[in-house]
């Protein structure tokens, strides 16, 4: 029996096979969507560039070379150099690491927090719900960038604080989604059946409700990645995010602003990177929605 | 009699790991102002047939037919806008599984009201009045209380009746009822079916009643199609159902328990021949 | 011995009381049917026994022990419930295997879970190749059998069945009814079953209670039902309607 046959077997004979089969079917569907493929390529490229940054960069991202200030893009410097003579291509490449790190940490912190807060609020209802959702609404009522600004101002500028601030500002929208999803399931008979078997509330939420919220959460987080990148860049741009000489894309644009008319590449190149990566996450998120969201596609 | 609905060679298929599988395999019928029953075992494609008439089969599924004509509308080539005008207003469908079709986070009253105002503009007081009236029409005892309940708070049978009430709002030309009364006790079931029946006679409507209850279908329809595995295997006038000689129909009839049951075990159909 | 005893049970949801002064008892090994008007509180009684509806007064005792309100792990292994709708009672993202092993994990049952799962699948007549499928890959009847299998995992003595066959076609209904009969024979189970179908009661059950407007109007033996000797006018009406339906058509199609 070939691997494909094993994967698409109608009657899998082990947990592993069932899971692998599902993954295979989902990825097949994802690959059939051209935009999603573009998204996958961009995001994979981002990850590869971040991992192999030292190999891909042509120069050090921080080493200054004042003799070669503000050179236009060319054979030596693919994206030109900035006002301190640093190679912009290398800075963009190393910047990928920072961007990826921000995105990953924010996702790792805020998605689970939002998921748990929302599921708990939705499952228990009553005053638990009112308190948790009241808190959530306070956060949601302020624009994200403003809130992040306030936190960074309080915590002090720096990339770590920027990440924390962004994470604090993103979880509430996840909590909202998780709560809305939970409300539609919490009276379902399969949840009653779990409770009847003696499952504790922790188990019901953890193994009964959360798995049903994760797919909309994955979609939402992926779509939000673009926003997170932009917020991080925004903080960098106004000097509250990554501090020099770190090659953070937002901070790079901010420095390049002074030369935008004569040396356009200084601000444009990192800007291009932000646009491409944001778009990549959006495409991927859209594709995932088609595949994972039961309301849109297959329920598998 | 001019037919309301004509179906020729209707096929519905879904993609499967090894090529597409047909779940409805070329069925034909035409329907005037009459009551057509579709029976058959679970998975035989009854619901898919009903849904394809409303073009409700979503993407990976595919519907083809040589002819699928509802009055002057060619359903397969109609635009989405035309279909929206047909759906609900001229063809209504009572879906199987009411709790799944009702929105779990909106009250019953609001859902019915939404259906009402989608059809014509009504002042608010009238909407409320009409909503209560609809619920009373399907024999819901305490409509003032029920409008404030969420779908999980009503009993199985009440959910079904709410669905029926919503489908009767627009007074359609064709009503497709998919297992409309499986969760109702015999007494309410008879009342609800009588209401549907009366409406159909009065307005000269067509009815497609999908059910697995052979007695019910034979009592409330004129003509019956028996489906198996996506094909129509037997077709007869309702009053002749009990006398049908087709082995599959006989098998279904035999599998039903009787009021004076003496058998120790019910005969089951041989399902091995069927794809799983 | 009475495995289930209910006396003067009143159940409400919030301010509205839906079950009034219900009393009945069920002997070990018996199949007891609850039938009657839609919305009369049949499911609610089952939910109160199971512990899913907690606002009740009166007395419920199961296996000689008074039932406290709410759910408890020990009770779970004595009494289980099968829900009305096989489409809504299985977790859509869990394989049959995960659904069936859940109760074993909750109760930290020792031994090989895989063996037990296959044993129970066998006893409900499901092929082993269904074990790693997802619910959407099963037909209604197969799902209902999974739900029954799940209820059997902890080897309860009492099963509460809420319209176990109303969503199923006649051939699958025959399958499930035969299965329930077989399980009672082999494992000595007791069932309390909600159903609308008088013929099903006649085939499977020993006794029945007819409900209307939240009250039990009559408790009878199945022999009484078969011989048409029910005493309450409402139960007589139900029986007459179940009997009369086939004839109804002749008068309707004139
Ligand atoms: N999304 C889908 N993908 C693949 N197969 C499907 C899908 N939806 C339905 N089917 C298959 O189509 C067949 C016919 O389904 P249908 O719902 O019409 O059955 P039915 O006759 O209404 O049965 P029941 O009495 O159980 O409602 C079934 O075998 C089912 O497995
Ligand atoms: N969670 C709830 N909150 C408020 N009222 C409820 C709730 N669940 C059920 N009810 C009400 O209790 C009454 C009895 O419902 P129940 O589900 O027990 O009826 P049933 O006898 O099972 O009917 P059916 O045969 O239609 O399923 C109904 O009037 C219903 O509206
Ligand atoms: Mg169906
Ligand atoms: Mg019920």
From TrEMBL, chain A:
Tell me how this protein sits in the membrane: Multi-pass membrane protein
Origin organism is Harenicola maris
A GO cellular-component term linked to this record: plasma membrane
> A single GO BP annotation from the record?
peptide transport
Record's family? Belongs to the binding-protein-dependent transport system permease family.
The name under which this protein is listed is ABC transporter permease
In terms of Gene3D superfamilies, this protein maps to: MetI-like
Q: What is its main location?
A: membrane
Task: Identify the InterPro entries for this entry.
Answer: BP-dependent_transpt_permease (IPR050366), MetI-like (IPR000515), MetI-like_sf (IPR035906), OppC_N (IPR025966)
Keywords per UniProt: Cell membrane, Membrane, Peptide transport, Protein transport, Transmembrane, Transmembrane helix, Transport
Transmembrane ranges, per UniProt, are: 35-57, 98-124, 145-170, 190-213, 225-244, 264-285
Lineage of the organism: Bacteria, Pseudomonadati, Pseudomonadota, Alphaproteobacteria, Rhodobacterales
Top-level taxon in the UniProt lineage: Bacteria
Q: Respond yes or no to whether keyword Zinc is given for this record.
A: no
Places the protein is found: Cell membrane
Q: Residue limits of the ABC transmembrane type-1 domain?
A: 96-285
Entry keyword annotation includes Protein transport? yes
From TrEMBL, chain B:
- Do you know which InterPro entries this protein is assigned to? AAA+_ATPase, ABC_Ni/Peptide_Import, ABC_transporter-like_ATP-bd, P-loop_NTPase
Q: Which SMART domains match?
A: AAA
Keywords of the record, alphabetical order, are: ATP-binding, Cell membrane, Membrane, Nucleotide-binding, Transport
Q: Name one GO molecular function term.
A: ATP hydrolysis activity
What residues does the ABC transporter domain cover?
A: 5-254
Topology of the protein relative to the lipid bilayer? Peripheral membrane protein
Q: Where in the cell is it found?
A: Cell inner membrane
The principal localisation class reads membrane
What does the entry list under GO cellular component?
plasma membrane
The record's Gene3D superfamilies line, in alphabetical order, gives:
P-loop containing nucleotide triphosphate hydrolases (3.40.50.300)
**Transmembrane region positions?**
none
CDD domains linked:
ABC_NikE_OppD_transporters
Q: Which GO terms describe its biological process?
A: transmembrane transport
The similarity comment for this entry is: Belongs to the ABC transporter superfamily.
Looking up PANTHER family in the UniProt record yields: DIPEPTIDE TRANSPORT ATP-BINDING PROTEIN DPPD (PTHR43297:SF2), OLIGOPEPTIDE TRANSPORT ATP-BINDING PROTEIN APPD (PTHR43297)
Please give the name of this protein.
ABC transporter ATP-binding protein
UniProtKB/TrEMBL annotation, chain C:
Q: Which GO terms describe its molecular function?
A: ATP binding; ATP hydrolysis activity
Q: ABC transporter domain: from which residue to which, for each copy? A: 4-238
| CDD domains per UniProt | ABC_NikE_OppD_transporters
Instruction: Give the Gene3D superfamilies listed for this entry.
Output: P-loop containing nucleotide triphosphate hydrolases (3.40.50.300)
Q: Which Pfam families match?
A: ABC_tran
Q: Does the keyword Transmembrane apply?
A: no
User: Is Nucleotide-binding included in the keywords of this UniProt record?
Assistant: yes
| Example GO BP | transmembrane transport
Which keywords fit this entry according to its UniProt record?
ATP-binding, Nucleotide-binding, Transport
Homology family:
Belongs to the ABC transporter superfamily.
Name this protein carries in UniProt: ABC transporter ATP-binding protein
């Amino acid at each position: 029996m070939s691997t494909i046959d094993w994967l698409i077997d109608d009657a899998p004979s082990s947990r592993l096979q069932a899971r692998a089969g599902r993954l295979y079917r989902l990825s097949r569907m994802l690959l059939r969507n051209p935009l999603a493929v573009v998204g996958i390529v961009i995001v994979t490229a981002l990850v590869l560039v971040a991992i192999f940054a030292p190999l891909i960069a042509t120069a050090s991202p921080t080493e200054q070379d004042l003799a070669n200030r503000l050179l236009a893009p060319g054979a030596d410097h693919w994206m030109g150099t900035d006002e301190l003579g640093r190679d912009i291509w290398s800075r963009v490449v190393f910047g990928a690491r920072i961007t990826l790190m921000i995105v990953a940490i924010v996702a790792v912190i805020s998605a689970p927090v939002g998921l748990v807060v929302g599921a708990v609020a939705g499952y228990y209802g009553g005053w638990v719900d009112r308190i948790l959702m009241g808190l959530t609404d306070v956060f949601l009522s302020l624009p994200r960038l403003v809130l992040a600004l306030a936190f960074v101002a309080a915590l002090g500028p720096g990339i770590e604080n920027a990440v924390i601030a962004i994470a604090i500002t993103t979880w509430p929208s996840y909590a909202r989604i998780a709560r809305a999803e939970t409300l539609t399931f919490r009276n379902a008979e399969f949840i009653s059946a779990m409770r009847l078997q003696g499952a504790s509330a922790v188990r019901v939420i953890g193994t009964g409700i959360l798995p049903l919220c994760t797919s909309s959460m994955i979609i939402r987080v992926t779509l939000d990645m673009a926003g997170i990148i932009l917020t991080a860049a925004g903080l960098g741009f106004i000097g509250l995010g990554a501090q020099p000489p770190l090659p953070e894309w937002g901070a790079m644009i901010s420095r390049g602003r002074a030369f935008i008319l004569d040396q356009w590449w200084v601000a444009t190149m990192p800007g291009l990177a932000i646009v491409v990566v944001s778009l990549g996450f959006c495409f991927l998120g859209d594709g995932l929605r088609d595949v994972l969201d039961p309301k849109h596609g297959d329920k598998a | 009699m001019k037919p309301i609905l004509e179906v020729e060679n209707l096929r519905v298929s879904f993609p499967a790991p090894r090529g597409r599988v047909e779940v409805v395999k070329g069925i034909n019928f035409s329907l005037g102002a009459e009551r057509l029953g579709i029976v058959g075992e679970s998975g035989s494609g009854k619901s898919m047939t009903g849904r394809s008439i409303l073009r409700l089969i979503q993407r990976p599924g595919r519907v083809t037919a040589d002819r699928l004509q509802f009055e002057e509308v060619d359903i397969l080539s109609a635009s989405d806008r035309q279909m929206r005008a047909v759906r609900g207003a001229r063809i209504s469908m009572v879906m199987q599984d009411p709790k799944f079709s009702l929105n779990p986070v909106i009250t019953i009253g609001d859902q019915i009201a939404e259906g009402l105002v989608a059809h014509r503009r009504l002042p608010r007081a009238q909407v409320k009045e009409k909503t209560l009236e609809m619920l009373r029409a399907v024999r819901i005892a305490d409509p003032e209380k029920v409008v404030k309940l969420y779908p999980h708070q009503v009993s199985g049978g009440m959910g079904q009746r709410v669905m029926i009430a919503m489908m009767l709002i627009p007074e359609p030309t064709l009503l497709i009822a998919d297992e409309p009364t499986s969760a109702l006790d015999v007494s309410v079931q008879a009342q609800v079916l009588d209401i549907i029946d009366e409406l159909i006679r009065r307005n000269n409507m067509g009815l497609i009643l999908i059910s697995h209850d052979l007695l019910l279908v034979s009592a409330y329809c004129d003509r019956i199609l028996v489906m198996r595995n996506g094909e129509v295997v037997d077709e007869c006038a309702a009053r002749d159902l009990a006398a049908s000689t087709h082995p599959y129909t006989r098998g279904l009839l035999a599998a039903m328990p009787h009021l004076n049951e003496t058998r120790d075990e019910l005969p089951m159909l041989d399902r091995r021949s069927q794809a799983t | 011995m009475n495995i289930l005893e209910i006396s003067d049970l009143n159940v409400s949801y919030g301010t509205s009381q839906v079950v009034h002064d219900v009393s009945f008892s069920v002997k070990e090994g018996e199949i007891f049917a609850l039938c009657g008007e839609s919305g009369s509180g049949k499911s609610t009684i089952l939910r109160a026994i199971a512990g899913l509806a907690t606002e009740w007064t009166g007395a419920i005792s199961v296996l000689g022990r008074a039932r406290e309100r709410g759910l408890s792990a020990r009770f779970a292994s004595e009494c289980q419930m099968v829900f009305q709708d096989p489409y809504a009672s299985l977790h859509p993202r869990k394989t049959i295997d995960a659904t069936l092993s859940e109760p074993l994990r909750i109760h930290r049952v020792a031994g090989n879970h895989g063996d037990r799962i296959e044993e129970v699948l066998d006893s409900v007549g499901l092929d082993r190749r269904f074990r790693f499928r997802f619910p959407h890959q099963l037909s209604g009847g197969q799902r209902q059998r999974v739900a029954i299998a799940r209820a059997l995992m902890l080897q309860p003595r009492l099963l509460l069945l809420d319209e176990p066959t109303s969503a199923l076609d006649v051939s699958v209904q025959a399958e499930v009814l035969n299965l329930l009969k077989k399980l009672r024979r082999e494992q000595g189970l007791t069932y309390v079953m909600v159903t609308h179908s008088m013929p099903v009661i006649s085939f499977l059950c020993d006794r029945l209670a007819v409900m209307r407007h939240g009250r039990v109007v009559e408790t009878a033996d199945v022999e009484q039902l078969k011989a048409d000797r029910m005493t309450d006018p409402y139960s007589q009406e139900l029986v007459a309607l179940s009997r009369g339906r086939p004839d109804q058509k002749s008068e309707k199609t004139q």
